[in-house]
Each structure stands twice: as structure tokens, then as C-alpha cells.
């Protein structure tokens, strides 16, 4: 058990980074990591396949994020129904806009952010990503290609005409 | 072995170091003589590199002890208790209607249902156990009335308990069988809590005479007005309960 905990401790900073790239908010990112670790530890015996521990944890975290996202949207709609206003979701403060690439990355849809982080940053294999998303490897490759083009276009746009995009 | 010219997928696999050694060399030879495609590939590589650099800072966050596996294991052990508590959330909805679905025959006397049970239940869950998070927290300007007015326009004003040291601190919406309910939690400096609870009277339009009852260590003052039912809940035998019973005029 201590051995497992040691392995987990090494991966936790990576999980936090991934969660941060999804939620863009460090406290909800840590909530997400916590919920994912709880899920992982309580289903350790039966669900854990023999693959890479990191990829398995990424996939748990990603699912939790998507679920929570759907729930909060539902809740926001309920509040909106009561009030006719939508103030349940606080405006997203983008605390870290360091470089144009990061700014562009931040504007990509959730799945493209996850894909680029897994492949470009974490170096997961296409096969591992295919397992996380539960799609064929070929699909991963075409989605990755689209994500890269999108990042490229946004980074270019960011440099040449940042003001125009914001005003839209 | 990949075929030449390389497909776009092969080029991505090249960028991601997912080609075999031989294929990698093939692609490199190809790129050496196709400068436009090489530029495209280099741009992808640069994006990936910049992304790695930009995100490397996020690995250096100070440790969060709550995320340590040992802590998580401890929390998991306590979780069965929490499951019981979330079952109680459902109970709010059920107990208000008094099992109206399958016990409808016995529901001729609505009044056999003790008044404002849901308000007491909500106090336990929110003020005492902190199970449900607040939807709204009073800032320094503390416009709790404004928050409540958005949901219950005709309702009684929030009572001013500042004389006794209690100020509105947070609000939460709940759904009950009688309709949407809101609860505002007042707190004093000592962290003691009083709740103000408001909801519609329900389909039977059941209005309450001014009354008071205690249940399981909590005391509820209840009344109706402006088309809604209200309750104020606090722990029994506290100065706060005393104060509610004697001084609050509704």
C-alpha cells in the first residue's frame, strides 16, 4: 500500500496540472484531483487494468471533469429558470496567460486541451489516449491533427490581431 | 514501414516521437527536400515545446496536504457517514410531502405532518453538518435581501437580528415538494447559527398559525405571510433561541 502511495505522490503534480488546464481555476482543480483520487483508490482492486497508472488516473479525472461540468451546467440552468439571470457561474478568471501559446491553448475546447496535454506535454502514446477516450487510434490521430491546427491558428491570430478577437 | 510521401498522420507521429527508428529517418530525409512541409512540422514542434515550457510552472505548485493518498484513504473510511447524510437530502423532499405518493390515502389530514420539518432538516444539513455548499455568500456590503428577492419577491423581509449580533452570512436554494425553498443562515461572531427558511405553502395552500416547536435539539419558530411559509431555526436552549421566541415579531 505504501508503494502505491509513493507512485501516486509522484503523479499528483501531473494530475493537478491537468486539472488546472481543464478547470482554469486552482481550487476547483484540486477539488477535481481529490475527487478523482477518491474514485481511484476506492475502485483500485476491480477496475485498474495493467496499463500505465498515469493514463488510468488521467482518464478518471477527465470523466469526473466532464460529469461535473454537465452537472454544474444543469444547476446553472435551474438557477436561471428561477431568476431569469445566469449568475451561477462566476466569470472565469484566467490567472495565467503567460505566452501566446498558452493563451491560445486556453481557448481551445476541452477535448483538444486534454489531447494536446496528454500527447505533447505528458508524452502518452496514441494507444493510451485512444483507451482514455474510448475511440480508435485513427480517431485520436485525426482529432490531434485538428487540435494542432487550431492551436496554430489561434497562436498566429494571437500575435497578429489580438484586439480584434477580444472585441468579437 | 510508412510509405512516401508521408501522410499528415505520419508527420504528427513524427512530431510526437511515435515512429519507429527507420520511419523517423525516412521522414527526416523527406523533410530535408520539402521545405514547406518541413516548416509546417517545425511549427508544430515549436508549439509543443512552448506548451511544455508554459505548463511546466504548473508542476511546481506548493503541495496540498488534502491530496495526499494517506489523507484520501482516511476520508474514504469516513465516507459511509456522508452517504447517510446525502440520503437525508432526499428525505427533505420526501418528508415535506409526507410520502404523498404511496401513502396518499392517509394524507387526509395534512396537519398531522409536523409543520416545517423541512426547515429543521435543512438546518441540520446546511448549518450543522455543512453538507450542502452555499449558493450565495454575503460580501462586505452583504446584500442578502437582494439575493432572496430574486427568488421570493413577495416574501417577508429578512428579520434584522444585528441587535443580537447575528448577521446574514450565506444563502442556499433547495427544492422541496412544495416548491423551491431558500434558506439564509445568520451567524454571530461566536459562529452560532440561526436560519431563516422560506418556501411556498404547497399545492394544498397550507398556511401556518404562528407557532413554535422543538425537535431533536433544534427549535423552530414558524408562521405564514405574503403567500409563503417561514421558519426560523436555532439550537434549543441557547440565548439565540430565547431571543427568537421573545423578541422577533412577525
Count of runs of 4 or more consecutive helical residues of chain A: 9
**Average pLDDT of chain A:** 76
Helix content of chain B: 25-40%
> How far apart are the first and last residues' alpha carbons of chain A, in Å?
53 Å
The total beta strand count of chain B reads 7
CATH topology of the largest domain in chain A: Rna Polymerase Sigma Factor, Chain: A
Assign the CATH topology of the largest domain in chain B: Phosphorylase Kinase, domain 1
Largest sheet of chain B: 7 strands, antiparallel
Low-confidence stretches of chain A: 84-98, 159-168
Oligomer: heterodimer
Provide the residue-averaged pLDDT of chain B: 80
Number of domains of chain A: 2
Main β-sheet description of chain A: none
Structural overview:
The complex is a heterodimer of chains A (168) and B (250). Chain A contains 9 helices and no strands. Chain A folds into 2 domains: 1-95, Orthogonal Bundle (Rna Polymerase Sigma Factor, Chain: A); 97-168, Winged helix-like DNA-binding domain superfamily/Winged helix DNA-binding domain (Arc Repressor Mutant, subunit A, Orthogonal Bundle), CATH 1.10.10.10. In chain A, 78% of the residues lie in helices and 0% in strands. Chain A is globular. Chain B is an alpha+beta fold and 250 residues long. Chain B has 2 domains: 9-51, no CATH class; 85-247, MucB/RseB, C-terminal domain (Phosphorylase Kinase, domain 1, 2-Layer Sandwich), CATH 3.30.200. Chain B has helices at 8-15, 21-32, 35-56, 69-77, 79-97, 117-128, 144-149, 239-247, and strands at 136-137, 167-176, 179-187, 193-199, 211-215, 218-225, 228-235. A 7-stranded antiparallel β-sheet of chain B has the order 1-2-3-4-7-6-5, with helices on both faces. In chain B, helix 5 packs antiparallel against helix 6 (117-128). The longest helix of chain B is centred in the N-terminal third of the chain and has 22 residues, at 35-56. The radius of gyration of chain B is 30 Å and the shape is elongated. Chain B starts with 7 loop residues before the first helix and ends with a helix. The model of chain B is unreliable at 93-112 (pLDDT under 50). At the A-B interface, helix 1, helix 2, helix 4, helix 5 and helix 6 of A face helix 1, helix 3 and helix 4 of B.
